[in-house]
Amino acid sequence: MPGLFAALSPRSHSSSRATTPSPTPTVYRTNNGATGDEESIAKLKHAHTPLPAAQISILLLLRFCEAASAFVIFPFLNELLTSVTGGDKANVGYYAGVMESIRQLVSFATVMIWSRLSDHIGRKPILLLGMSALALSMLSFGLSRVFWALVVSRCIFTAFNSNAGVIKGIIGEITDHTNSADAFALLHVPWAIGSSFGALIGGWLARPHDHFPKVFSSQFWISYPYFLPCFVLSLTAVFGVLLTAGFFNETVKGGYLYKNPNSRGNEDSEPLLESSNPTHSLATLGTTSKEDPVPLKDLLNLKILIPVMNYVCLASLHASSNAIQPLFLAMPVNIGGLELPPRDVGYILGTYGFVSSIFQTLMLGRLVRRFGVKAIFVTSISAFLPVYAFSPLMNVIVRKMGFSYVVWVVLGCQLSASLVMELGYGCVYMFITSAAPNKRSLGATHGLAQTLVSIGRIVTPAMTNSLLSFSIKHHVLGGYAVYLALLVLTLGGVWLASRLPQRLKSIND
Q1: CA distance 404 to 408
Q2: Alpha carbon distance 147, 156 (integer Å)
Q3: What pLDDT score does 246 carry?
């Protein structure tokens, strides 16, 4: 079928205008009037590439291990810090804050190093290093009996791990414009499941000598009451190392552990995200960029910084929401909250996490293909407006009418807006990936984004909580000043989102 072969040929469009005589190709016309050439091109453009399930499954497992390890300590952290600080319960919050701040600062200092190194030596060695550090970190944490040993243990992981940014870069390398939204949406699921699993393991297996005395009867479990949950999570990290080492295929050509591309199953897909020139996209089918990683200074341009700053804006506003939402649900009504009991707060937040993971998985890809990635991202940032506006509204309703069904309806609307807001993460990952100078610079590009986001996640929750306390203590705008400030910042975020490109370009464009 010459018409079909012509459509698949990179030179099909230029050869059709050639002045030299050539045999007239056979043209097949379909029922809708399109020629065989046109139909072949249309099918090639709109075909939905299946996700590389094996590769993505390994990446999702690594995300699960990280989430579980981050949350496993929370159920017993208060008891642990009380014991290692001499029973000073009043300052447990201070010690927890110091440990978390140091951990985030170490991450800020090292994430760019490992991300850039992944562009040169490959993604797989960095993933293996990060998961090995996670296993060692959890073992060390479970065996620590003084405060600074706990701090060092937590920092071992962040000092040698940049998996969050590297994994996003890998997703950009192994997907194309037809399935990238589905792949990025999946990244939300293992984090939600892993955080729940980690908290469950931490609460269930802490102090095993007290709960399972017949099985854990030795003095070791009395001396190290929190070792068992940390050991279990360390084993999951070791499993992640073995699975990555044995089955994950290096995606960086020329990387230390790179294998023959014929052993991979996704080499015939287009570069991530469709080119604005359909002819160019089809012509470059199956090609790989051979450019070297660019210097860091070449990443500091508006093409990259605009999506990166949108990521910072989204993560910062989300961190602020996460900081004040649990407080709002539990605070007394007279100071601006709903005064719900802890069990109800847990049910609300737990149910939201479960629904969110399902919603992201099922809806992001469909919505992006239907409305476009920019429209979904702008909508997700705009969703912060009802998220912040409905909190003071609910408090006013409770004060005026009592806790009626109206409050539950408004709370449901607020949580629904939060679901829409979280769609923005998958979208902004696609914008950042598409802004990378080339595929060999994906690690550095996502590393830059993670570095700047870590600053926002350190600063904004503290500022939000401080402003919340200040507005309540001094009765600024009836105690609602923090929500007004966040609404203003959201409007700025909507403007910043409007500066994103209308269409995503191929990395190779």
Answers
A1: 7
A2: 15
A3: 93
- Taking the C-alpha atoms of residue 208 and residue 221, their distance in angstroms, rounded to an integer, is 7
Long-range contacts of 282-286 (CB under 8 A, 24+ apart): 282/7, 282/8, 282/10, 282/41, 282/44, 282/45, 283/10, 283/11, 283/13, 284/10, 284/506, 284/508, 285/8, 285/10, 285/44
480: which 2 tokens?
């609602």
Structure tokens that stand for 154 in this block: 């937590």
Length in residues, the chain = 509
Q: Single out the residue of 304, 280, 297 nearest to residue 509, CA to CA.
A: 280
Q: How confident is the model at residue 506 (pLDDT cuts 50, 70, 90)?
A: low
Claim: this prediction has a pTM higher than 0.90: no
SS3 assignment, position 295: coil
- CA 376, 382, 383, 384 dihedral sign is positive
Nearest to 282 by CA among 11, 101, 80, 65: 11
Per DSSP, the three-state class of 408 is helix
Residue 274 neighbours by CB under 8 Å, 6+ apart = 45, 177, 281, 503, 504, 506
Copy the structure tokens of residue 4: 């079909």
CB 180: neighbour CB atoms within 10 A?
27
